[in-house]
Amino acid sequence: MFSNRVKARFIAIALVVAACVMAVVGAGSFAQAPEYKLGAGDKVRVVVLADPEFSGEYEVDAAGNMSVRMIGRLSVLGMTTGQLEAALTERYRSGGYLRNPKLSVELLSARPFFVLGEIVKPGSYPYVAGLTVAQAVAIAGGYTRRASTSRIKIKRFGSPSGSEDSVNEDSIVNPGDILRVPERFF
Fold first, then answer.
1. 36 is a domain residue
2. pTM over 0.90
C-alpha cells in the first residue's frame, strides 16, 4: 500500500519525534525541585524506631514551632523534613532520651492556600501538588461575574508584607500562598 520511500520517511520522522520527547523528558528529570520548607499549618509524622512512644503526628503552629514529645517546643520554620530529622535526632541524643536515635519525618499535609476577592467561595483550601491559579479558582467555586481575570495577584508564603506578584491562570500556587482576584473595572 505504501511505498518503501514513504515508510522510510515515516520511520525517520517517528525517530526524530521520539528523540525530541526523550530529550525533553530526560532534561526534566535532572532538574531538582526546591525542597519543601516547613511553615505554619503543615502537619508531619515523626516515627522513632527504637521507641514508638516518641513517635507522633504534629502540626506546625502559627509561630513556626512544634511541641514534640519529651523535647518540648522546637522552632521548625523554614526547615526541610531532612533538617527536622537531624534536629530531632540531635535533641533526643543530647537530652539523654535515646543513645542512637533512628527516626524519620514525613510531611502528612502541606499548609492550605487561600483565595480571596471575586470568587464564589473565598477561603482556605487544602493544598494539592502542582496547583495552578486556574485550578485554585475552580476549587474555590470559580469567578464571580465581576471578577477581573487579567489582574490576579498572589502573595507568596513568606514574602514581605504587602508584596504581591501579578500572575495568570497558568501560574503555580504554592502552599500558604494567598490568591487575590480583584473586581474588574466597568
1. no
2. no
